[in-house]
Amino acid sequence: MNMKRLLFILAIAASGSLNSCVDMDITPKNIVTDNELLNTPAGMDIYMSRMYSLMPFEDFKYTAQWGFESNGWLNSTGIEGTGEAVNREGLSASFTGERTSYWSKGFVLIRDANHLIETLPAFRENFSEELYNHYLGEAYYVRAMTFYTMAKRFGGIPLVTKVIQYPSSEDEMEVPRASEEETWDQILADFDQAIELLMPQEIKEGYANKYVALAFKSEAMLYAGSVAKYNQDVSGRLTGIGRKTGVRVIGFDEASWRTASVRYFTEAYQAARTIMQDGKYSLYKKRWIAGDTEAQYQNMVEMFSDLSSPENIYVKEYIFPTATHSFDAYNMPFSFRSPLSAGTCPTLDFVELFDGFDRYPDGSIRVTNGDQNASGEYLMFDSPLDFFKDAEPRLRAYVIFPFDQFRNKQIEVRGGVYTGDAPIKPFFSSYAYNNADTRYQNLSIYNGSSKSLYLSPREGGSQELVDYNGQQMTAAGQEGPFFDNGEATVTGLYLRKWLQTNPSAELGEGKSAQPFILMRYADVLLNAAEAAIELELVGASSPDGSSLLQVATDAINAIRERAGAVMLQGTLTGDVNGRNIVRKERRKELAFEHKSKWDIRRWRVAHYEGRDGFWGESRDKNKFSNNENFRFRGLYPFFSTKTGKYFFDARFQWIASKTFGYRPLDYYFEVPSGEVAKSSVIDQQPNR
Amino acid sequence: MLALVSSCSLFEADSYDAPDVTLVGSVVDVLTGKPVLTDQGSEGIRVRLTELSWGDNVEHNPDFYCMPDGTFQNTKLFKGNYHITVDGPFVPLLRRDPDGKELADESIVMNLETSHQVKFEVQPFLHVEWVGEPTVQNGKITAKVKVTRGVSPEDFKAKVEPMGNYNDDFLNMTDIQFFVSYSSSVGYRARDERWSSRLDYSGNSFEDLFGQTITIESNGEIPAGRTVFVRAAARINYNTPVGSGTRRWNYNEAKEILVN
Fold first, then answer.
1. Cβ contact (<8 Å) for A235 and B99?
2. Residues 6 or more apart from A11 whose CB is under 8 A from it?
3. Which of A224, A602, A646, A674 is deepest in the core (most CB within 10 A)?
4. How far, in Å, CA of A114 to CA of B258, rounded?
């Protein structure tokens, strides 16, 4: 459209300066038109590659605080208040909005999809029936994905389903936000169109096929069903009417939320079941051996970089040196920094979701022989790794434990050295939330006259030294933590998932090319299980006659078996307890994949009143939050010179001391105020 | 090319007047005339100005918030015709029915030109008062407070029920907070986690305790020799503005206490 204007201006300029009598009706040679683009598979490939390059994929180029800015700067995962991880940066904050809102960018892509849907029929005879349908299916898929990406951020959105000509009247050009229910229905319809039209096999790696559309449909419908249902649990029902249009732009009508929720969960279940029954995909078990935890761990490390994995449904690939990212450059342990490190520091709370640890009566991980971590004496270990000897193999594949191997190196993580007598009493008298800001540096055993605790503010020459067996031992490990330098781990743990494991691979910004798995078969199993339980919870019938609870149980067990986790006892129950088992499994399996932040949102468990359910399972929110903010914990190994052994202290994250907050308001992002101000029909969120 | 044609305007100074209009306001209890005390920050009383001369489709000015004493001031406003409203722990001034239709708007609409004073008379949900002076022993502060309703349940219901989704639980008193801080702006946002405490009440269990003296004690041990500030706050089970999910507290005035 801008081109038309430009031509118009040039034409006027030309007519003013020249006195030509020839009409200028020849298409310029440097403009590619539909005629060249849409009449051959090669031209279509160009059209498609533009659409796919604009797709809002949350991968190594996406940072939650910033939104889709399409660069990998400081990229890390799970740090946006999901509890999976934290880091030192300001961008480790709750997911309450994105610096670059996904609004206008979305409509650029929607226009491309709409253009194809409207124009391709004119070129129908150029393609086989199957191929023609597939192209159309891709357009519907792109539109569904874009609407979905916007809907989970804003609720109801303008449903632009045709190409809007420009210039034209205001009525034509202004599209108000639809209701949230209409929006999800449109997404459902677009996914269904795509599924019907797409071939089972994609044309090119990274493009859509029928199963890709089915998998994302099940994810989107799970989101819709959850929002319809759990908005009701938020104080005062989370819904509202737009000021300008009177449309219910967020939330659902009192009269329709129940049926809408069941409808969406049913669709989510059916879509996931179709993938499960067609049998094209399976869980990755190439290296998996029953009963062999080492093999199970290796299997889960390798599955994230193996492009031939049968589990991969949809993958964003990178190619060195032309299409690369920088995930390794920001997330490696401290001694591998290139130029940064420790961008994703997993938390103890996350570790607590996994099997294989001794626990206190309240379910938290045991570090002393008392009945909670402020009582009794520290448990002693010959090596920090002994603490993790029974840990679930999946956890070891996701997180580097202190003193575990990574890239042919032992990752020496040590919070400090203690020279006092054993047995050792807990360092703090209280580990409660309100004491979180009292740190190791504040303890009299560190800064008092009879010093017995040694810590290091920074690496290298700033390390405090302790004599041990005639040798000098640094207080902190080579990989930190350092209390004045957040560039080493701030929680005592490092990320392993996604990171380049080959020790000879060169590290640095723009040097990584691992693929990002956007959708895998485990997602589908978890979608099926969660939708099944939700349907069971309201007493809805199984859409395909299958036993809902059996399908859910089998799905969870398949994932647990591959993970090396403890299998379920019996069948899942159709109650909140059963639902929480499924949610918790999802929290564990899909961690660090940019998914949990959406799960926490759709379950409505981030604000204070709902926060007991934050971890998928039920935990007392007052243990990690006050009525405003919440925090996560670290796990810090200390060395005792008197015994030559290690012990662990479990406390609120020590170094960057991140606190997170979430209000019910944040479940729907603010519509960019400029878009609201310049339009007479675009509504702001009514509760803002 | 076009820029060259109209380039003369580039050399003219921007002559638009700097914003110099001052608006000073207070939020007071309609019955007693006393200020409605609040927290400093986005959980306190929100002041929202909308300049109406831009037409129907106007975006409001950036929000700002009252000071703890229930007053506000903005000295950098442009001249204009404004819709001024406040949201806080009191019966909403701007009430709409479930379909978005306006039921009542007790906000102020006025022309702002020089310096202006406004007063909002509202019906606070609760009154929180000190009973006697807080006492200190072994680093613990013990205070007595009294909570009473600022608006009668009937009046509340009459005004809030037409807004839809009404529930009798809205009127339940849910919790009393006891905020302790080194800062004189003590409140929800400026509290010390180590010492602040709270009392929770489920359902309508507080109903018989309205007007009674409630004793509340700080947590932990406050180091001797320091001055701290304390404040109590209470709230009902109703969020303002509707749909924001934020339940705001009514406060009493801060007291300075020497811990020795």
1. no
2. A24
3. A224
4. 70
